[in-house]
Amino acid sequence: MREIPEAARQGIDILVSEAQLEDGSAVAYAAYLRRDARTVSLPILIATSEGDVEPNVVRTLGDEGFLRLPAPPSALLDRIGELLARATR
Questions:
Q1: Distance CA 61, CA 36 (A)
Q2: Is 51 in contact with 68 (CB distance < 8 Å)?
Q3: d(Cα 44, Cα 32) in Å, to the nearest integer?
Q4: CB 83 within 8 A of CB 45
Q5: pLDDT at 81 over 70
Q6: Residues 22, 71: Cα–Cα separation, whole Å
Q7: DSSP per residue over the chain, as a string?
Q8: What sign does the dihedral 44-49-31-59 (CA atoms) show?
Q9: Which domain holds residue 61?
Q10: For position 60, what pLDDT does the model report?
Q11: Model pTM?
C-alpha cells in the first residue's frame, strides 16, 4: 500500500480495495489518504464481504464508495463509473 500515494500523484483515476488488507484496514488507509493534499480527492471504492465494515463508517471519510460483496460485476462497474463521474466535475 505504500506505493499508492506515489501512484496517485502520477495520475491513477481511482483506488479499488478490499476492506481487509494484509497490512491493515482499507478504511484506515483511506483516512490516511484524505489527510494528504496530493490524494485528498482520489476516488476510493472499498468492497467487502465482511460484516464488520459499515457503509456509514466508509462514507464519513468523504466520497469513498462502499460495495458489499458478493455483487454482480455490473454493480462494481456502475459504482466505479459513479465515483469517476463525480471526480471529474
A1: 13
A2: no
A3: 12
A4: yes
A5: yes
A6: 22
A7: -TTHHHHHHTT---EEEESEETTEEHHHHHHHHHTSTTTTT--EEEEES-TTS-HHHHHTTSS-EEEESS--HHHHHHHHHHHHHHHT-
A8: positive
A9: 4-87
A10: 66
A11: 0.77
Kindly indicate the confidence band of residue 75, based on its pLDDT and cuts at 50, 70 and 90. very high
What residue type is assigned to position 21 of the chain?
L
Q: What is the CATH number of the domain that holds 77?
A: 3.40.50.2300
Nearest-Å Rg of the Cα atoms of the chain is 12
* Tally of structural domains, the chain: 1
What does the alpha-carbon distance between residue 70 and residue 73 come to, in Å, rounded to a whole number? 9
Residue 63 above 60 pLDDT? no
Rounded to whole angstroms, the Cα distance separating 82 from 20 reads 23
Grid coordinates of 33? 489518504
Cell of 46: 472499498
